[in-house]
Amino acid sequence: MSTFGFLAPQDLWDARSEMFFSQVLAGVEDEVAVHGHAVLTLSARSVVEEMAIYRRWAEAEAVAAVVLRDLREDDPRPAALDELGIGYVLLGDVTQEGEEAAVLVDNAAAMRSVLSELRALGHRRIAHLGGPADLLHSRLRREAFLESVARTGGTAYVARGDYSEESGARALVTLLREPRSPTAVVCDNDAMAIGALEAAPGLGVKVPEQLSIIGWEDSMSSQLHEPPMAVLGHSLRMTGSLAGKALRALVADPPRRERILRPIPVILHRGTLRGIS
Prior knowledge:
Elements (H helix, E strand, L loop, with lengths): L2 E7 L10 H14 L4 E7 L2 H14 L4 E5 L7 H8 L2 E7 L7 E5 L1 H14 L5 E5 L5 H17 L4 E4 L4 H11 L8 E4 L2 H10 L12 E3 L5 H5 L6 E2 L3 H15 L8 E3 L5 E2 L9
Parallel strand pairs: 1-2, 1-3, 3-4, 4-5, 5-11, 6-7, 6-8, 8-9
Antiparallel strand pairs: 10-12
Helix pairs in contact: 1-9, 2-3, 4-5, 6-7
């Protein structure tokens, strides 16, 4: 039996959390537990704290491998894990070439697919509410958004947040200051989308009559919100299950490094999305 490590943000258990990591964690546990393995879960406030936990785990030989996510430019964690002798499964993007075990998505293709579907619904003024600029997946989505707008013509409505609901609300205020405000906003995570949605009535904007809002993850929060949030159908629990499968392969005899490509998600049409006639 092996133990795998899973580090999550400090606010994972907050009732207002987007619950992204709890669903991924549940999928990991679904996959590994039935094969006799265990998952050790801790929270970390920063990359520095995350690295310290990895060092403690290595010294105690507590885990065989971990789930690694949210890589930044020049991220120190992969090299540190290699040095510590801890295996890892990367939750990453198809542009991250290498031999490490990974569950990969194509963020640029997902953004292009979302924009194409929104245009088919009649939207022409589309905004992107991106996450932190140093996160690779946020940068890839923003680049795909800008390239698509440049190709089709129109205004590139953009704003950034820090993945919190509060930043989503602030970003919506910024976007609505445009002379011709957007009719749809694509958000890099569900928490910012919910923040924008809850701020809209106070700004005099009706959702979805005047503004459509789309989240990225299909978290439980987005499903239970009223109205339910339109999102990309990622199936987060399946992502976790695939990560668990790759973790098991790392401790198999002989060990294998599996690289698994997720299909491009499509928009799940719910109460915050409406076409323009």
